[in-house]
């Protein structure tokens, strides 16, 4: 009997599915006593896959399911995974009751808002060249880059908390041009492959680029 998905999925969809699998792996390494840094690198690898699926779709064609699959994958990789990393980075065995509440409450809110933001994106912005609210991919990238840059745990938690508003704020963000997406991908790849090289140069450059886009893109990014 012919599978239901036969002929309905594209090569780009396979890349999107890999994005979701990498998001799962980022959480799984934490459950399996892996390091937070390894989980952060897997989130950045998922971000590379997230950018690559668009390139593959333009080159080889997309399926009608592409937008829905992309948002579902992003829930795993840029909603759940960064939230889990935030918990792991902040919460320790000696945490107070207040710290424990923050460690779980803020990431839980982050996931909830990410799901809402991705649903809105799929419904309203998937076919546009811009989107309202900070992209979830950017949120996940900045959380992961902050961890790999050696940022204090409180700042990672603060970033997750800030993005619970930034992801749904009424500000328009333009899509990255291909050349800028490629440059971001190079920084992400460098942070994955050599996170500690040259005093953490790649994750710190990625963090700076991501923050620049977050702050400046709504007004100054060329279209």
In short:
It contains eight helices and two strands; from the N terminus they run ααααβααβαα. With 223 residues, it is an all-alpha fold.
Order of helices and strands: HHHHEHHEHH
Radius of gyration: 17 Å
Side by side, the strands of the main sheet go 1-2
Helix segment count?
8
What best-fitting shape do the alpha-carbon axes yield? globular
Largest sheet at a glance? Answer: 2 strands, antiparallel
Share of helix among residues? over 70%
- Any low-confidence stretches, pLDDT <50, length ≥5? none
Oligomer: single chain
Q: Report the sheet-strand fraction.
A: under 5%
Kindly state the number of beta strands: 2
The overall number of domains is: 1
Mean pLDDT: 93
* Separation, N- and C-terminal Cα atoms: 48 Å
- The computed structural class is mainly alpha
How does this model look, in words?
- There is one protein chain.
- The protein has helices at residues 11-31, 36-60, 66-90, 97-125, 136-148, 153-166, 178-193, 197-220; strands at residues 130-132, 172-174.
- With 223 residues, it is mainly α.
- Strands 1-2 form a two-stranded antiparallel ribbon.
- It starts with 10 loop residues before the first helix and ends with a helix.
């Amino acid at each position: 009997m012919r599978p239901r998905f036969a002929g309905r999925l594209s090569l780009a969809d396979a890349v999107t599915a890999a994005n979701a699998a990498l998001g799962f792996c980022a959480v799984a390494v934490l459950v399996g006593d892996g390091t937070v840094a390894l989980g952060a690198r897997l989130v950045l690898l998922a971000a590379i896959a997230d950018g690559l699926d668009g390139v593959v779709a333009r080159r080889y064609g997309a399926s009608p399911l592409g937008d829905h699959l992309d948002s579902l994958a992003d829930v795993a990789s840029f909603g759940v995974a960064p939230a889990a990393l935030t918990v792991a980075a902040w919460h320790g065995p000696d945490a107070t009751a207040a710290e424990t509440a923050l460690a779980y409450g803020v990431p839980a809110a982050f996931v909830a808002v990410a799901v809402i933001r991705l649903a809105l994106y799929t419904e309203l912005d998937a076919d546009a060249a811009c989107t309202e609210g900070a992209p979830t991919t950017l949120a996940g990238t900045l959380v992961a880059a902050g961890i790999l840059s050696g940022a204090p745990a409180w700042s990672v938690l603060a970033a997750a908390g800030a993005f619970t508003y930034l992801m749904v704020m009424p500000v328009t963000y333009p899509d990255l041009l291909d050349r800028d997406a490629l440059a971001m991908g190079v920084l992400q790849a460098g942070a994955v492959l050599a996170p500690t090289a040259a005093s953490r140069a790649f994750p710190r450059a990625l963090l700076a680029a991501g923050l620049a886009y977050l702050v400046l893109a709504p007004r100054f990014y060329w279209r």
